[in-house]
Amino acid sequence: MEIIIDPDSGFCFGVRKAIQLAEEQLVDGELTCLGEMVHNEAEVARLETMGMKTFLPEKEKKIPSGRVLIRAHGEPPETYERLKKAGAEIIDATCPIVLKLQQKIKEIYKEESARNTQILIFGKPGHPEVIGLNGQTNYSALVIADESDFVKIDFNRPAHIFSQTTMDAEAYQKLANQLSALFSAHRQNLKVHPSSCRQVSGRVEGLRNFAKAVDVVVFVSGKNSSNGKALYEVCSSVNPRSFKISVPEEIDAGWFSGMRSCGISGATSTPPWLLAQVAEAIKRITT
Question: In terms of CB atoms within 10 Å, which end of the chain has fewer, N or C?
């Protein structure tokens, strides 16, 4: 059976940069990551064997000191202040695309707050990136996940809308068009800012074609990866023989019975070494 690893899968630019920075810093000793480094349990475990610790804010209240890494998702302004007060050495691995978006939202918030303008963020409530983005507005922005959240919006006031970088660009545009029509009906303006990461959103069409071209798809993703869930749904929507796993041990030999080709893909937080392990495991099963 032919086994193909999706050439567009694996770490996005921001995650790859953050992992590289973490590895470089770990050479000099212990490092604490503020939150889960990536939403992939296997990659986190690998980094922990190198000396990295993970600080989970939802479980631990005392802010860490020592050398602390801010992951690619970014953090709100008060996190930096708390770390400084704790005497931590901050190593900032915020994705450059996320950082630029944070700065843009902060700028618009300062410029428009006196004009009674609303800031809207299309994203997942509680997601680390969204928390960091909303923090730029002192948490006054409205997080909009779907149409059910439209009730939060005052359509008699102008607004700016941004998107969490990892949200689907097509879904963002569709929602923005709906909102623009509603604001126009109230004679108000909605300024739509393109802010989806092109590398992430651009994967959708390529992934559809990849999933269509093979008999069976094995999609590798961490259990907590929202990006992984979304991309797996892309695969399963065009190829019903798509299966999602976190580690090679979850592979079922029955998936490949009578199949001639298998495609392996993964989330933007899935390490290339794990995709290679999955390919080797499938090769052993099917040979």
Answer: C
